């Protein structure tokens, strides 16, 4: 049993009991969250595909933690000049444990 949900402009394939790494969600750890933009739901009875979303389908989860990923270094360089620039970026991610698909 799995579902495809849309959250923060991205699509995620989620299964029951799985912990999914997503874009930052502004909530505290332990907070329940409901995703109502469900694109596909697959169960033992069959597969439902939405146009664009499946009606009356929801995926529930609980926020486990919000962390920052490892630093990514971005280096820009222009040839034949003295232009060099090093920039660091750390993306914030939220981990959500899926508790119910239905």
Automatic annotation (TrEMBL):
Q: Which Pfam families match?
A: Ribosomal_L21p (PF00829)
Annotated signal sequence range: none
Keyword terms of this UniProt record: Ribonucleoprotein, Ribosomal protein, RNA-binding, rRNA-binding
- GO CC annotations on file: cytoplasm; ribonucleoprotein complex; ribosome
Q: Does the keyword DNA-binding apply?
A: no
Q: How does it assemble?
A: Part of the 50S ribosomal subunit. Contacts protein L20.
Q: Which family, according to the similarity comment?
A: Belongs to the bacterial ribosomal protein bL21 family.
Write down what this protein is called: Large ribosomal subunit protein bL21
């Amino acid at each position: 049993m799995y579902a495809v949900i849309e959250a923060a402009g991205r699509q995620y394939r989620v299964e029951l009991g799985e912990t999914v790494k997503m874009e930052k969600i502004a909530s505290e750890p332990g907070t329940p969250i409901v995703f109502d933009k469900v694109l596909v739901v697959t169960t033992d009875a069959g597969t439902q595909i939405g146009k664009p979303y499946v009606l009356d389908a929801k995926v529930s989860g609980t926020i486990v933690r919000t962390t920052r990923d490892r630093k990514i270094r971005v280096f820009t360089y222009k040839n034949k000049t003295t232009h060099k620039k090093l920039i660091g970026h750390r993306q914030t991610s939220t981990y959500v444990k899926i508790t119910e698909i239905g």
